[in-house]
Amino acid sequence: DAGITQSPRHKVTETGTPVTLRCHQTENHRYMYWYRQDPGHGLRLIHYSYGVKDTDKGEVSDGYSVSRSKTEDFLLTLESATSSQTSVYFCAIRDTANTEAFFGQGTRLTVV
Amino acid sequence: GQNIDQPTEMTATEGAIVQINCTYQTSGFNGLFWYQQHAGEAPTFLSYNVLDGLEEKGRFSSFLSRSKGYSYLLLKELQMKDSASYLCAHMDSNYQLIWGAGTKLIIKP
Fold first, then answer.
1. Which residues 7-66 on chain A approach chain B with CB closer than 8 angstroms?
2. What is the structure's pLDDT at A29?
3. Residue B105 needs a FRET pair 20 to 30 A away by CA distance; which of B12, B18, B30, B38 works?
4. Burial of residue A12 (number of CB atoms within 10 Å: 0-12, 13-18, 19+)
5. What are the pLDDT digits (tens) for B52-96?
6. Residues on chain A touching B87 (C-beta within 8 angstroms)
């Protein structure tokens, strides 16, 4: 199994608070992604990174920011959490742009 | 625009064969992936097709027709552990993965 871990695995937070989710990989893969998964929707890309300090927006980036200061860590921050951001968040890594993605175990976030 | 469709839910019997279809529309195409996701778990990679035809991998096979924008995942000799959601995703011209909503497969004894 690919070495990719997410933390925390579960979190409940209040509306308006900032939240940071962490993705850590030990595979030295160049590409890292944050997705959210909601019932009735496919995985939707929030942000991705193609190298240290190189990030770009996905289709649902509003309200989220990311940082990648070293190869192994990719952080997702909800600047001011809202109830619409209640979701399961998955981090994924890819070695090259056209290979399969490996996923972390997910973070279940509830905003109350 | 880009779109990808698959049935929401399917039911099959243990020991039988099931085919899960996926259709897509895209302005650029670099391959199609299938993933399996058990409830509460992460998606795991099953197959990748970039050329037309059938790729067989044990009990699972995946087919692609680029001209028709169509793929299917074929599961043979179904086992109870195959109860899961099956996600298809195509890779667009920017190598980003565009995901379907997933097909929940229910296996009955």
1. 40-45, 48, 58
2. 95
3. B30
4. exposed
5. 999 999 999 999 999 999 999 999 999 999 999 999 999 988 889
6. 42-43
Q: Could you report the per-residue pLDDT of B22-44, keeping only the tens digit for each?
A: 999 987 888 999 999 999 999 99
Chain B residues within 8 A of A43 when measuring between CB atoms:
43, 87, 89, 97, 99
CB-CB under 8 Å, A43 with B97: yes
* pLDDT for the residue numbered B15: 97
Strand locations in B1-109 (E): 3-5, 9-13, 18-25, 32-37, 44-49, 53-57, 60-65, 70-75, 84-91, 97-99, 103-108
pLDDT at A111 over 70: yes
Instruction: Give the one of A41, A101, A103 whose C-beta lies nearest to B101's C-beta.
Output: A41
